């Protein structure tokens, strides 16, 4: 069916009725950004008018933008923590939202070392579902025939906990995969996964990965796209194959499932899929036993048309590795979302990773933008609200910090993402994800900021005291050349008594102490083996002075020079690495349990 849609006409595609509806919705929303935003804010403010939070600002029933902007402050998670804590403790009064808080979504962003808790309400699932429902119609415009096969997606649920008041706290995707929206989704030939629900919903991530990979291998010829949410997840799956291929070949050859997979529902569903197939087992053995794993994805799944993984933001560091394993398959970054709110989608999903822009859907929440300028102080004070710009009024080329007001009761909440406007689709601005504010190091879901790194280094350097040694300078690097990636910390030490210098054992303990000090998401990723042991590289005395000389030779001002606390620029890495005198690794996993410490 042909539709009146700039999207489909742009690529000259004729589309199914279902897709046409989705594309029309995108067109409608993006053409009427401002009026949709006005309506969404009105809806949120009128339904939440009697919440304790909004009453505090005396809107007196007003639902218009001007009143809202003049009376309601821009806030951070820390500002809302008292309210969030009360909800977590069981206060069911309408504090932030008039609709009951159905659960907390645990963000990978942290506050005081713990995951942030984002309140959500039941109907938000519909909004998330709506955004998901737009992805394939857009993809179908660019990649025909996706109904002729399956998607091999590595999807996982994670540990969930309960707050003291009994509300569930779990990651947004765990919430979604466990919902009926996902579990009882109607059959859609464009969205058939190789992984049965039972394998995705298996709480043991190793058994889950094992079963999902096994299904992917068995159905290898049907696979048309391979993906995970983030690039790090897909690379973890490749590494899992590298470690376990002999066992997979054995299972496929004999038609029996590895006894280490003990989950009864996984065993049951796998018994219907797994049949002896010596030919396939021989093929897997041949491909995986080769030293060279270049193009392994296309060798094993030869019909793959694209990888479906987010490689924007912190995940861009994985592009070269993914290119290596996939022989340069396109990488589709389809959507931009968070625990607070799902934001939008990429209307040109087959573009190069460096060109990805997301279009925020104006019906997901009310969005405002704080002009971002690195040189100006960015801490907004409650007394003088910064002037925020509306979605419809943004300027191409400028950078902004994203602020959301959600149905679940976050009002003018700073998400912490910095976005640059790259253009418009109809009246809707499109955004390049630039970076997350204050994040220094990230390998997987972890986000470590400068003060967390500083604190970890202070805690670790206590161990050096008895050796009369101190850390004079440091910097860091997220090393993702190998899977899993790991944090590298460069230390320049001042050793007062060379005869009593800290030993390798002591410095390894420093690595461990740093890991113990890092936030809960880091520690969880370590325990889940998606981050490798932290490494300290001790560099020769004077190395950081050389670093400064180098920066100055490239135009940095002596007065303003600050040691970069994270480096990635190749010449700097080369300089640092050429001055390394010793390397030390964390000898053990840091402490992590699903329970919150507070
Ligand atoms: P979480 O709070 O754990 O759900 O993480 C949400 C954050 O992940 C967002 O605020 C972004 O910083 C990041 N993120 C989500 N989607 C993307 C994307 N498509 N590209 C880059 N970063 C993303």
From TrEMBL:
GH3 middle domain residues: 358-436
Domain GH3 C-terminal: 452-569
Domain of life from the UniProt record: Eukaryota
Protein name as annotated: Indole-3-acetic acid-amido synthetase GH3.1
Family: Belongs to the IAA-amido conjugating enzyme family.
Keyword Ligase appears in the UniProt entry: yes
InterPro entries xrefs: GH3, GH3_C, GH3_M
CC terms in the record's Gene Ontology section: cytoplasm
The entry's keywords: Ligase
GO molecular function terms noted in the UniProt entry: acid-amino acid ligase activity
């Amino acid at each position: 069916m042909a539709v009146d849609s700039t999207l489909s006409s742009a690529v000259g595609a004729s589309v199914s009725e279902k897709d046409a509806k989705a594309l029309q919705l995108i067109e409608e929303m993006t053409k009427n950004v401002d009026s949709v935003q006005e309506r969404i804010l009105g809806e949120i403010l009128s339904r939440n008018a009697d919440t304790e939070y909004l009453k505090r600002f005396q809107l007196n029933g007003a639902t218009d933008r001007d009143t809202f902007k003049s009376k309601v402050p821009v806030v951070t998670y820390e500002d809302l923590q008292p309210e969030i804590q009360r909800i977590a403790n069981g206060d069911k009064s309408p504090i932030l939202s008039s609709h009951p808080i159905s659960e907390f979504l645990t963000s990978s962003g942290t506050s005081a070392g713990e995951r942030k808790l984002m309140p959500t309400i039941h109907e938000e699932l519909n909004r998330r579902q709506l955004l998901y429902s737009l992805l394939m119609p857009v993809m179908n415009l660019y990649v025909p025939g996706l109904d002729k096969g399956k998607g091999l997606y590595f999807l996982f649920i994670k540990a969930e906990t309960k707050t003291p008041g009994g509300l569930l706290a779990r990651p947004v995707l765990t919430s979604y995969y466990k919902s009926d929206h996902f579990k009882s989704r109607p059959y859609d030939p464009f969205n058939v996964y190789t992984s049965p629900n039972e394998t995705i919903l298996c709480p043991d991530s190793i058994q889950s990965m094992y079963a999902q990979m096994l299904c992917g291998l068995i159905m290898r010829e049907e696979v048309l796209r391979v993906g995970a949410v983030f690039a790090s997840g897909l690379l973890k799956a490749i590494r899992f194959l590298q470690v376990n291929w002999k066992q997979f070949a054995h299972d496929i050859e004999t038609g029996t499932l590895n006894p280490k997979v003990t989950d009864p529902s996984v065993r049951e569903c796998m018994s219907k899929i797994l049949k002896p197939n010596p030919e396939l087992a021989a093929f897997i053995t041949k491909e995986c036993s080769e030293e060279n794993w270049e193009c392994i994805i296309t060798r094993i799944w030869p019909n793959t048309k694209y990888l479906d993984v987010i490689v924007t933001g912190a995940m861009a560091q994985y592009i070269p590795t993914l290119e290596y394993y996939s022989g340069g398959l396109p990488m589709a970054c389809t959507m931009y979302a968070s625990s607070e709110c799902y934001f939008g989608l990429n209307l040109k999903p087959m573009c190069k990773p460096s060109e990805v822009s997301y279009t925020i859907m104006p019906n997901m929440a009310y969005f405002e933008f704080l002009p971002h300028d690195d040189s100006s102080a960015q801490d907004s004070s409650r007394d003088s609200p910064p002037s925020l710009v509306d979605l419809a009024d943004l300027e191409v080329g400028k950078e902004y910090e994203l602020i959301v007001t959600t149905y679940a009761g976050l009002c003018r909440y700073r998400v912490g993402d910095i976005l640059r406007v790259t253009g418009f689709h109809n009246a809707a601005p499109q955004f390049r994800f630039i970076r997350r504010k204050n994040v220094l190091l990230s390998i997987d879901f972890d986000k470590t900021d400068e003060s967390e790194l500083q604190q970890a280094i202070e805690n670790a350097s206590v161990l050096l005291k008895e050796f009369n040694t101190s850390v004079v300078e440091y910097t860091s690097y997220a090393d993702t050349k190998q899977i899993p990636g790991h944090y590298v910390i460069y230390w320049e030490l001042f050793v007062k008594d060379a005869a009593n210098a800290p030993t390798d054992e002591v410095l390894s303990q420093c690595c461990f102490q740093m890991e113990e000090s890092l936030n809960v998401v880091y520690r969880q990723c370590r325990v889940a083996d998606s981050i490798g042991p932290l490494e300290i590289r001790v560099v020769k005395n004077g190395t950081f002075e050389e670093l400064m000389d180098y920066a100055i030779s490239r135009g940095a001002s002596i007065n303003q020079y600050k040691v970069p606390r994270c480096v990635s620029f190749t010449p700097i890495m080369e300089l640092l690495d050429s001055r390394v005198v010793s390397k030390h690794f964390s000898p053990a996993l840091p402490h992590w349990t699903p329970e919150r410490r507070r």
